[in-house]
Design brief:
By secondary structure, the chain is mainly alpha-helical. The protein is 66% helix and 0% strand. It has 2 domains: 4-83, no CATH class; 105-173, no CATH class. Helix 7 runs parallel beside helix 9 (149-173).
Length: 175
């Protein structure tokens, strides 16, 4: 599960659109944030002198099923008021998800590692900017060529370069 502090630790601004994506607003990342995280964030915003009535309303919510729908509605309203773009906020989720997944991949078992990298990008829908190469997808790698320790190390380096590039892009383009 991804927490709001994961974004903050990398210098990403937490926005209502970012929160909406991880709560119920996106098929890939929905249900990653719990109502309690959102309520606590709203309280934090109030403590930092936010005077938006929607934030006050959100801060007064409870973690019940009946209020989850109301939290979702308020998040939609708050995210529409922002000057952020869905694409950039989604990319924040994606980079955190990739970083967390790669941290937890077994670096010593290259076959499992390659499978986990493939699963990671499958979940993300194989975006065009993926640093991953999938055996047999737009290439002629045989399984014997693909499932090697050398290829695994190469792909991990390629992912690290992509992460650095993506982080720079996000940090440069935050509002």
């Amino acid at each position: 599960m991804i927490k709001l502090n994961d974004f903050k630790q990398y210098g990403f601004y937490v926005t209502w659109k970012l929160i909406d994506i991880g709560f119920r607003g996106n098929d890939i990342f929905k249900y990653n944030l719990e109502a309690r995280d959102i309520i606590n964030y709203a309280i934090e915003k109030i403590e930092n002198n936010s005077e938006d009535n929607l934030i006050y309303e959100l801060a007064s919510m409870y973690e019940t099923e009946t209020e989850t729908e109301e939290i979702n509605k308020i998040l939609k309203k708050l995210s529409l008021k922002e000057k952020t773009t869905f694409n950039l906020e989604f990319r924040k989720w994606r980079i955190i998800y990739v970083i967390n997944t790669i941290k937890n991949i077994d670096k010593n078992d290259y076959i499992s590692g390659l499978i986990e990298l493939g699963d990671l990008w499958e979940k993300l829908g194989y975006p065009q900017d993926t640093p991953h190469i999938i055996q047999g997808r737009f290439n002629t790698f045989t399984p014997e060529e693909y499932y090697t320790e050398e290829n695994y190390k190469f792909l991990l380096i390629k992912h690290k370069k992509w992460i650095i590039s993506e982080m720079k892009f996000i940090l440069r383009n935050q509002v």
